[in-house]
Amino acid sequence: LSMGRTPRARNGCLALSFTARPSPPPHPKTAQYWCVAPLALGFYWKAHAPGGFWLYEPRETAALVLLWAWAVRFFWRVPWDGWKVGLTHEDWRYAQLRAQMPSETAYWAFSFSSLHLTPTLLVHACMLPVARLIQQGAAAPPLGAADAAALALIALAIGIETAADEQLAAHRRSPASLGGRRACRSGLWRWSRHPNYCGECLFHTGLLALGAAGGAVAAEPALCVGAAVMWLFFRFASVPLMDARSLERREDYKAVMASTSALLLWPPRD
């Protein structure tokens, strides 16, 4: 996926690199791009901010530091082999979608629009509140209680994602998982079927809240779209897909679905 400087340039490069291939790509780097692109966008916006690259206003500095913490958490969690294997190995989700399509041409069109272009636009939309903060430069309003709440939410979201990943990894190593045939029911996974997704959505909501604290959302209400669509994307696209696979692979997952919140962290019903 392209790292073009603007949405038009980025999506144009994406289309060119996509159509230049003799067959639809195996989608090896969608998740990696999800975390790499915001860092590249942050560098670009900062380089074109009022006052130049080396003028750091407190709010934007906090946003960029937490953005890097969020990305580094992902890089640390993904083994280095995960960055290389995807060049030849296709994720099960994409192989499944390919098999469901009536033709290779139909899959090509779906792959470009839904698996490449949509995540690219969604990442950019969720990052726009950060862009507006950076563009304020020295004219940014002073920090206040709303900033503290937004920063706490972002930090909490990173913590939730980290804890959820660690708890799931521990479960997979445990004999209690029965080789992956039983779902993780400990820690945050007791309160949500997908606490990692919840943390991701909260992270982008926190960026939006920080933009609101800096006055950017009041000036541009459309900035709310990115975080709102992020919640919808995970709840109605990612969650059903993962739930369907778990129902096939995990003997206790029907009971998990009956008792555990799909996305939000919520007390279990049993």
Compose a concise summary of this entry.
The chain contains eleven helices and no strands. It has 270 residues and is an all-alpha fold. Mean pLDDT is 87; it is low at 1-5 and 13-29.
- The number of distinct helices, counting runs of at least 4 residues, comes to 11
Oligomeric state of this protein:
single chain
Q: Helical content, roughly?
A: 55-70%
> Which sheet architecture does the biggest sheet show?
none
H/E topology pattern: HHHHHHHHHHH
Mean pLDDT: 87
Structural commentary:
This protein has 270 residues and is an all-alpha fold. The chain is built from eleven helices and no strands. The chain has helices spanning 7-19, 30-47, 58-77, 81-85, 92-100, 104-136, 145-173, 195-213, 216-219, 224-249, 253-259. Helix 1 (7-19) runs antiparallel to helix 6 (104-136), helix 2 runs antiparallel to helix 3 and helix 6 crosses helix 10. It starts with 6 loop residues before the first helix and ends in an 11-residue tail after the last helix. Mean pLDDT is 87; it is low at 1-5 and 13-29.
Descriptive key words:
single chain; mainly alpha
List the helices and strands and how they pair.
Blueprint: H1 7-19, H2 30-47, H3 58-77, H4 81-85, H5 92-100, H6 104-136, H7 145-173, H8 195-213, H9 216-219, H10 224-249, H11 253-259
